[in-house]
Amino acid sequence: MRNWPLSELSITTPRLELRHPSLDDLDELGDRAAEGVHEDGFMPFLFPWTDTDPAGRARSTMQYHFRMWAELSPASWSIDFVVVHDGRIVGTQGIAAKNFLVTREAGTGSWLGRRFQGQGIGTEMRKAVLHLAFAGLGANYAVTEAFEDNHASLAVTRKLGYQGDGVTMHDRQGKPALTHRFRLAREDWTESPGFEIHNLAGCLPLFGLDT
């Protein structure tokens, strides 16, 4: 789409493609959400969007992406890629920032369809958006946060070299729950071979950055 250059933005890795989703992509991503993202009785998200029936999860997934598209501005943006593995959409990986031109700091968030977990995909897709943040957008820091019982997310974060950045107490479905915050500085980031960003130049003005 000429007037929406993000539609051409993608990142490729040795196993994955992360791309800005089409409507058909969102439909398939909604199917992954409907199939399930985590085990029953566990809530890894600050906003409990998965706490509903399969149709509700699919609809919420699509509405979230529509909302992020509509609200995007240089002062506050969220780019949420679909993650493609072996020709199938398996999850989503996001990168977001507020006042990026000043802070040079971006946060990440993601989820994988439950049947695709435990295959190293989560680590590789996080590496992909870190490559976008540091090599593509010139970030100085990447940050992330996860509940203390979200062991898979915490393992990815620690594997990639983030340092602890404090804790926050939340109300999670009526009960207190602690999240751990983490920060990765540019100088602690290790660039991985085989990661490439495609069609970023035309998107830079949407982030307030020069081409």
Automatic annotation (TrEMBL):
Domain N-acetyltransferase per the UniProt entry, residue ranges: 16-185
Stored SUPFAM superfamilies: Acyl-CoA N-acyltransferases (Nat)
InterPro entries found in the cross-reference section: Acyl_CoA_acyltransferase, GNAT_dom, Ribosomal_N-acetyltransferase
Gene3D superfamilies, per the entry: 3.40.630.30
Pfam families reported in the protein's UniProt record: Acetyltransf_3
PANTHER family: RIBOSOMAL-PROTEIN-SERINE ACETYLTRANSFERASE (PTHR43441)
Protein name stated in the entry: GNAT family protein
